[in-house]
Design a protein that fits this description.
The chain is α/β, with parallel strands linked by helices. It contains 9 helices and 9 strands. The structure holds pyridoxal-5'-phosphate (PLP).
Length: 233
Amino acid sequence: MADAARQLEERLHEVRERMAQAAQAAGRKPDEVLLCAACKSQPRELILASAALDIDCFGENRMQEMLPNLESGVYLDKPCHFIGHLQRNKVRRVVGAASMIQSVNSLRLLQAIHAEALRQGIRQDILLEINIDQEESKTGADEAQLWPLMEACAELPQVRLRGLMSMPWLQEEDGRAAFARMRLLYERARPLAPEPAHFDTLSMGMTDSYEAAILEGATLVRVGSGIYGPRQT
Ligand SMILES: *Cc1c(COP(=O)(O)O)cnc(C)c1O
């Protein structure tokens, strides 16, 4: 564990350093970009150790991992975001538990989240997940769906639309093109958001792409193996 803890610190230090360099290269302040630790399938002790370090929030893919992790306090009160595919039959338990649901990709899911938030008497922060490179990636709503989804958000007061999320499939030569397109979409969407002042999150970039994403305007990157090392499967 001592070794694991030291490795964790070293990896995180490198990620933070490269994030800061990318931010500076883009003329941005390093603290404009949040680091979300994608901790799927990591052991609790490692998540707990990382929570004490310099990360801003956690990202969970599975309700079955998130709920026990929340229960046992391993996030040390740092916010936990839901970033995985969300089935509607899990909405009831994810709403209110996740401080943000990043992976909202359909009207039906949006409505289900709203209904549950209403039932609980809360407002649920969400991002709309966009499939920016339609042929390759399998998750997210089509780009054209963004506008009807945003209109729907205006009618659903228990959800608070905070921005956009994407997980593009990156090709070598145009690694940044998909991120640049997301940034444009984000800029176009902001003035149309129900609460533009709270539309402040562009979640994109993972271990192999967070620097490119920051260069193109990401405000939150989701890094897993870069922090925790390769996942055991
Ligand atoms: C696993 C995961 C990440 C992080 O992936 P790494 O390549 O390990 O950094 C980011 N976003 C989502 C939605 C994920 O499922």
